Amino acid sequence: MRYTQLRAFHYVSLHQGFSRAAAAMNQTQPSVSDQVRRLELSTDTLLFRRERRQVRLTQAGEDLFRLTRAFFDVEEQIEDFFDRKRGDISGKLRIVADSAMHITDAIGAFRADHPNVFVSVHTGNTEDVLQRLRDYEAEIGVVGSIAPAPDLDLVDLGLSPIIAIVRKGYFPDRTAISNFADLQAHPLIFREQGSRTRASIEAEARRVKVTLTPAIEVEGREAMREIVASGAGIGFVSEAEFGNDQRLMHIPIAGMGLAMSEAIVTLKSRRDVPMIRAFLKSLPGQDQRV
To answer: What is the 3 state secondary structure string of the chain?
Structure first.
């Protein structure tokens, strides 16, 4: 097994094809194919299923890809180390967040300090965020109400109450909902399974022995907001994520004392990646790691 063979395998897995991998590596496709074939022969392990013009990782290939992502991530850290000796940080910072509202100021500050870094922001629920971090598909995660884990570093962003939201005019009288049980009489719009906001609402319903059944289940916070804005029912967000949407209003519900904590999440194994360290320094007053 040689470094060049592992690198060829990694690029084919990363780019999901031999031609695209060859282009990324500035090599010929036969050369890349031969390196992968030699790796499979030397280890007696089938890494790809070749189907017509497509290739798919076998289970062994997926397991190896997780390792090569970590391996080449360290290589990138080494390159970044020497890049720091030559100048400012550059490259790409990948952020995946349940809501980007919590870090908009930090992104602005980071870009001001590091204008050569391209920042990409993707949204997802907490399960998505943690999976992408652990698969080395993102450097920074933003999640709500997460328990500490041995492989994660957390930076606490504080608590925000969970509120119910409706389209303005949905209730002629703002006192139409007086307690948690009153929600049963209205169509409820829930986020997908895996949403921490939804899990908190459902846990509270069980605690007070109220059955809450969603009329609509939707993936993603923005999609949920749009459906609520159409007047289809009642949704739930943290107060920090309510924003300034003039179509919506939040309604007080007696006894609903739920709150979401928000946190920046990174992998402990990657805490020395220069890009990650630089972003964390952009968080106002967040020099401490929890």
So the answer is: CCHHHHHHHHHHHHHCCHHHHHHHHCCCHHHHHHHHHHHHHHHCCCCEEEECCEEEECHHHHHHHHHHHHHHHHHHHHHHHHHHHHCCCCEEEEEEECCHHHHHHHHHHHHHHCCCEEEEEEECCHHHHHHHHHCCCCCEEEEECCCCCCCEEEEEEEEEEEEEEEECCCCCCHHHCCEHHHHHHCCEEEECCCCHHHHHHHHHHHHCCCCCCCCEEECCHHHHHHHHHCCCCEEEEEHHHCCCCCCEEEECCECCCCEEEEEEEEEHHHCCCHHHHHHHHCCCCCCCCC
Amino acid at 47: L
Q: Which residues neighbour 279 within 8 Å (Cβ) at sequence distance 6 or greater?
A: 93, 106, 110, 139, 140
Residue 157: closest CA among 171, 174, 143, 138: 143
pTM here?
A: 0.56
CA angle 268, 136, 102 (to 5 degrees): 70
Residue ranges in the chain whose pLDDT is less than 70: 83-88, 145, 173-176, 254-255, 285-290
Residues 142 and 98 sit within 8 Å (Cβ to Cβ): yes
| Pair 10, 20: CB distance under 8 Å | no
What is the model's pLDDT at position 288?
Answer: 41
Is 224:230 a contact under the CB 8 Å cutoff? no
d(CA 98, CA 175): 31
Place of tokens 């999609």: 223
* Model pLDDT, residue 290: 35
pLDDT, residue 146, reads 78
Query: How high is the pLDDT of residue 101?
Result: 75
